[in-house]
Amino acid sequence: MINSIATENLAVAYGENLVVDDLDMQIPQEKITSIIGPNGCGKSTVLKAVGRILKPKGGMVYLNGHDIRSLSTKEVAQKMAILPQSPQAPAGLTVGELVAYGRFPHQRGFGKLKPEDKKIIQWALDVTRLSEHETTAVDNLSGGQRQRVWIAMALAQQTDLILLDEPTTYLDLAYQLEILELLFRLNREQGCTIVMVLHDLNLAARFSDYMIAIRGGDVIRHGLPEVVMTADVLKETFRIDAEIVTEPRTGRPVCISYDLIKDGVN
Asked: How far apart are CA 97 and CA 100, in angstroms?
């Protein structure tokens, strides 16, 4: 398996609070990977460390086989786009203006957008179905549309790797499917490597090629959804007693019910 991202003995802390310690993780190239786990387990922290938003306390992060510390910020931005949870655009900014920010890593100094930049921006708007909203203020869009704008900005960076922290947060069921179907299409048609932190286990299993279950900063299990979405793995990861079935339309595992595991009860 060719890895787009790999960590080796990764340790990340907030002040004196060690959140992730000695983490070894591999993200396969040109696949959709979801990271799942309980609140506070280190999912978002790992994503931020990989995206160089947080500086690791120790260990290594490799991007396409290269020590990420050896790459400049601009080089990383040309290879990787990262969307934090619930990003906010400056008031009054239009869809086209926000998407255009994605071209900054490819510009020199404060240079103007070149014809090639404008072509890529238009492509990003088209593929995310936002062309008709190019001059609309981002503030005036629905939650699902705003999320598509941020994804379009990431696409305008022309990176092979996109990291997303809870891309479906605060969205209703239809918008969640809209965003995940867009990411699925981008992966299949453009070959983008997608890495997501998701809370919804069933959506993670439905749209992912690969899943990583984390608890307490440790990888509990990784592999195909069928390997990770099992009663035993969810018991160890979330402390729940889950019932897993195969969804007939997709053939993917689905958690249809679960109970809390009480202290001292297996």
From this structure: 5
